[in-house]
Amino acid sequence: MAFLELNYYSQVLGMNQPMAAILPEQSGYTPDWTNDQLQDLPVLYLLHGMSGNQLDWQRKTEIERLLRQTKLAVIMPTTSLAWYTNTTYGLNYFDEFAKELPVKVASLFPQISKKREKHFVAGVSMGGYGAYKLAFATDYFAYAASLSGALIEDTNYPGFLEMEKPSYWRGIFGDLSRFPGSENDIFALAEKQAAKKETLPKLFNWVGQEDFLYEANQKAVSRLKKLGYDIDYHTNPGEHEWYYWSRRIEDVLKWLPINYQAEKRLS
């Protein structure tokens, strides 16, 4: 299993962007893998939350250990604090993720599959919002998972706006009164996608019962099911913390169609 840190130039953003990646390889853990078996690899994009970056998943979870015996590539990009969104201050992070990054990944890692059914995305908090947004607004991802995602219907959700100053939120989403129904409203995107009667992405959702986003996620799951989405929903005691997300990511790996091979924990 190889862990890589790299920088690439984003034409969309007009600046260098960091990215981390995990790639399966022949090693002492998997001596029976051949180069032919390490082609057309499924890929999971892991998205970070607020205050995080592309290294969160590697630093705060056991994602490398979990994947030592599984043929899955992982891409970990960063949106800084921009919510995977085309911001009003001119940085089009959504376009970078939805249009440019997949092409860049295909160029840098030709062993990664180009098939939609082998492309997955998952995220925590802000990244959960980003994962569903990318799944609903593009035809690139077949599976999307949200852990404690900010799956809000509007920006008046209790505690949401208090996380940052009003000027910050206007910089990200613009006029907040126009958020419902906009290109940043994941439910509007989900409705539009469902109306096309095309193959919908399969969804996974987990939220802790003590999380301030618990009610938002319950409503989101109900609304998405009514639209026809196949959503695997889970909840149990937990807060808005990496302590819980680091455990739930293995549930996501087991849910994905990747023949996940769990590594035994040391006793």
UniProtKB/TrEMBL annotation:
Coiled-coil portions: none
One function term, GO molecular function aspect: acyltransferase activity, transferring groups other than amino-acyl groups
Pfam family of the protein (one): Esterase
Protein name per its UniProtKB record: Tributyrin esterase
InterPro entries: AB_hydrolase_fold, Esterase-like, Mycobacterial_A85_antigen
